[in-house]
User: What shape does this take?
Amino acid sequence: MTAISYKPKIWVAGDWNAFFGFGTNILVNLLVLTGLLRFVLKMPDQLVFGRILPATGLMLCLSTGYYAWLAYRLAKHTGRSDVCALPSGFSVPHMFVVVFVVMLPILIDSGNPITAWEAGLTWVFIQSFVLMAGGFIAPWIRRITPRAALLGALAGVSITFISIRPAAQVFSTPIIGMICFGVIMVSWFGGVRYLRGIPAGLVALVVGSVIAWGSNAFGLNYGGMTLASLQASFSNFGVSLPMPAIDHVFNGFHYLPVILVTAIPFSIYDLVEAMDNVESASAAGDEFPTTRVLTADGVVSLIGCVMGNPFINAVYIGHPGWKSMGGRIGYSAATGVMVILLSWLGILSVMMALIPVVALLPILLYIGMLIGSQAFQETPHRHAPAIVLALMPQIAEWGKTQIDNALGAAGTTAAKVGLDSLGQHGVLYHGLEVLGGGATLAGMVLGAIAVFVIEKQFLRAAAFALVGAGLTFFGLIHGESVGIGESPAVASSYLLLSAFLLGISRFTQTVTEAAAGPGAIADAIASKAK
Assistant: This one.
């Protein structure tokens, strides 16, 4: 059968595993998102379940449907039956950024949750256009950036913001978390099939729920499940369709100066993260067009935004994981349908009260383990030091975030405590702040420099150091905000590093030519003349 006449199967047996895995991943994120809206931003249920979640569901359905179609096209074009759709959903790091950095300060300033919601919509509106424009330069960036730098920066995200929090929560409630993690591990890593082929994600969900609700009979209350909260959750049942919110989008422009400080750098973060995830899929055997992926993220985010969703869409980390468990095309589209049902019918409210979140978190931990290991498995062994270097900005950013959260809980900040005082107690706050600024992009730059040094391509290493100087000068990496002349000391250090590497490049070229002898040099000159 030729590739042209080949008709890919929309659904295969492995899609069940991937659907329950990816579906529960999305469910975890939706539960966390809903909790942030209700309990951190104090938004009324009418706004959360009546406006925001229906718009979020629409965006996610469009996104997962599009990437299922893109996978179908690739499978049909290549004649392959193992093509796996790119996973997608709202960006988890940005979920926390837009809540805590954009909407929460504006809520505190205005005292109005509607105003905070409008600022979030404007934030996504700006990011959408940056993503659409950036889609056309992303393929070029992928061509010139070493795979170790791309996957290393992605591994940094997976180890810190994707894995550590779920791991900590698993061990905080180990009776549920560890057992569910074991259920996931023996199936997805150990290859064990459960009775009648029931997907491991569903088994973990059922086991965790049974333990949580069963513990109530003994007064232990593992997982925090109560009948009162379950009964109250049914009040949000009912059909809620997304409604246009264009006027709210433009109302948020009142806070444009505050929004731009984070919208532009995080748009670039989205651009880089999407490239990394496309590269991750390529390493797993599925080559998707970068421009289409990034522009689709921008378009889908814009549609969700004008319908009331204040969260950006993104291609997800984890494609190799879903592919390894048998996912192909159908799991992505099925997840979109699931999200529509959960968000448009108010079912998500009941799910929050019925399923302990800790039963779902091992899936995020699994994905983090898989992506972190891929950076080392899919690149030459000699590039391992570059991957470790690319990890460091994300680790620094995660550490800084933990310090900020701890100080915030104590009602203070690093500035109030004093950087010198923190330093005297071994907390290198300023160093973490500088290293972790623009962490994904910084990791790519540092990783690329290291790869080219390892390969003795010093001229290319010098070029990336020069790029690092420019990005730092404008605050896109190693800075607290976007601007001109941000972090001048770090920008100057990149310039000096670039000059040093350029000098090394010329020195090694001269030494090589001298070792080759006059005859080789003459032949090289003659060859260039021709």
